[in-house]
Amino acid sequence: MSLDLTQTPPRSVHDKVHGLVQIGRTIDKGKALAHGNVGEYHYNCLMDQAVFAFLGIDHEALLEQIKNAKSDAEIESYVRGFIDKKSSEEIEQWNREWVTHKPEGESLEYFLQLRNSLAPERTDVTSWADLLDLDEKRPVPHRETANV
Predict the structure, then answer these.
(1) Are 27 and 48 a contacting pair, CB within 8 Å?
(2) Where are the domains of the chain?
(3) % of the chain with per-residue pLDDT over 90
(4) Which one of 40, 76, 101, 111 counts the least CB within 10 Å of its CB?
């Protein structure tokens, strides 16, 4: 149940738990934080905060659940209680918008710097979800090039 993010990355933003993207990655960071091996990752970052707001989860309460859980199933059961309150349409919309979310404002400059340092030729990578996969050496499908 322990996860060492100094050795392996958390799940992809794209990976789903009970049909929802992002929350698995957030759980992985919470597990690593609880065991003192979160590495360069940050639990309760802006992306985590967005999924917490969508679901109505308090990040400290989830972290307590993670710390006290005897299995991954217990953690996912806790989270399921929040996911089940959303309609399939709300989840589908969240997933679609979340995996295509493009950087704005101050984060755009950081996004472009990171993308250009990782793979300057991948101008088709325009979402945070895809950039994180690229950074963590996961395959990212080529898409039609867009401006970001």
Answers:
(1) no
(2) 16-100, 102-148
(3) 91
(4) 40
